[in-house]
Amino acid sequence: MTLPAPNWPAILPEAGGAPPSASTGRFRGGRDAALERLAAIDPRRYATTRNHVDGAVTGLSPWLRHGVLSLAEVRDAALDRTAEPAAATTLVRELAWRDYWQRVQAALGERIGTGIEAPAVPPRRTPSPDLPDDVRAATTGMPCIDDFVRRLHADGWLHNHERMWLASWLIHARGVAWQAGADWFLSHLLDGDPASNHLSWQWVAGTFSSKPYIFNRDNLETFTSGRHCRGCPLLGRCDVEGSYEGLADRWFLPGPTDRPPLRIAPAPPWRPAGTPGRRPLVWVTLDSAAASAPAVARHPGSPRVFVIDPDWLAAERPSRGRLLFLMECLAAVPGLEVLRGDPATVLPPRAAALGCDGVALATTSCPRLRRGAERIAASLPVEVIDWPPLVDATAVRDLGRFSRYWEKVSRSALLPTRRG
Q: How many structural domains does the chain have?
């Protein structure tokens, strides 16, 4: 593999000091691997089996997170594989969740790191801010939980049901604050981004949903074919034994929280000040780490730079596996230069040195990237290039609940991207 910078170990020692030659896990970064996985999706089987941990899930989320694939591109592939659009509805609806999370992040910014609402029902104990040592070490004694943790650390990926079960158990049974769990997941997940990750944890916690998500053993057995429960030493006395109603009585105080209806106005289109330059420096970001991403595709002859931001490293503490996947994605971008530092400080002088008259990047909902672009716009024109849309959201006035959002966009979500 040709790395995007000859001094990569010095630029990113957090990855272990040695550049990767290939992934050792089940996911390989880069566009070629993404297209291989995309070619294998089966929307019909996905619709009927996705809730089972051995179901026909797409496994595309790591590449979607880094913009190696776009949501619209996956939607179009799903439509191509079905005789009628309705057969792709289940898969496209899941893509719309990711689009929805990004819109919520664009509207709320850093507020997604705190409870958007009071808990839907009050917990019986005050949440602990720390992740327990036995959870991190996968020594809880619950075979299912310990297996989920080991694979989270080893693979950087879990089936969505496993994520929800682990999050629900940690928040409701162990009394851990959802932020501690969300930060832990974000560190390890190859597809980890704050929008999808933190807002999903809030959905489980009941701080961005109409009710908390409850994990019980019957659900686990159904969707894992009983693999964790057969021979379990805790059978009959485990933390998630019982009905949903019984577990709710155990974990929550009686009665729902009195909460006002939640309304979230969508953010206006994000456009930093400045007239686009004629030859901009292309800023490749965590959200657009591919040659197919909009800014690179719009300016194929422009220099490309990715900046490793120490503030991002400190905030998300990405695992070595997550960093290696990112490195592989970046290595597939021809002519990419990788630098380290504050992007708003690094990019303007680099643009000047390369004879560029501006900076271009793909649109993003990430507050950190937006702040950096706005600081750059104080001295250089910044061009923001949109992704192909998954939906027509012009009629959306409220992001308070996904159901309301989906009602407005579902028809357009099943229309293929216009070409030509």
A: 3
Q: How does pLDDT run across 41-86, given as a tens digit for each residue?
A: 999 999 999 999 999 999 999 999 999 999 999 999 999 999 999 9
Q: Contact at 8 Å (CB) between 128 and 180?
A: yes
| Residue 4, domain member (yes or no) | no
Among the listed residues 361, 279, 316, the one whose alpha carbon sits nearest the alpha carbon of residue 14? 316
- 79/149 same-domain check: no
Q: Is the pLDDT of residue 361 over 80?
A: yes
Specify whether the CB–CB gap between 284 and 306 falls below 8 A: yes
How far apart are the C-alpha atoms of 245 and 334, rounded to whole Å? Answer: 55
Same domain, 286 and 216: no
Question: H/E element holding 44?
Answer: helix 43-49
Rounded Cα distance, 184 and 163, in Å = 12
Are 132 and 237 within one domain? yes
SS3 362: strand
pTM for the model: 0.94
- Can you give the residue range of the structural domain that contains 130? 117-251
CA–CA gap between residue 344 and residue 58 (Å, rounded): 36
> Residue 143: how many CB atoms within 10 A of its CB?
17
For residue 382, give the 3-state DSSP assignment: strand
Is the torsion defined by CA of 130, 134, 137, 143 positive or negative? negative
Question: In the block, which residue shows the tokens 């991403």?
Answer: 293
Three-class SS of residue 54? coil
Nearest to 180, CA basis, from 66, 317, 287: 317
- Measured distance CA(213)–CA(128) in Å, rounded: 19
Where b means 16+ CB within 10 Å and e means fewer, 224-241 reads beeebbeebebeeebbbb
Longest Cα separation, the chain: 69
Residue 6 within any structural domain of the chain: no
261 part of a folded domain: no
Q: Is residue 275 part of a domain?
A: no
For residues 135 and 93, state if they share a domain.
Answer: no
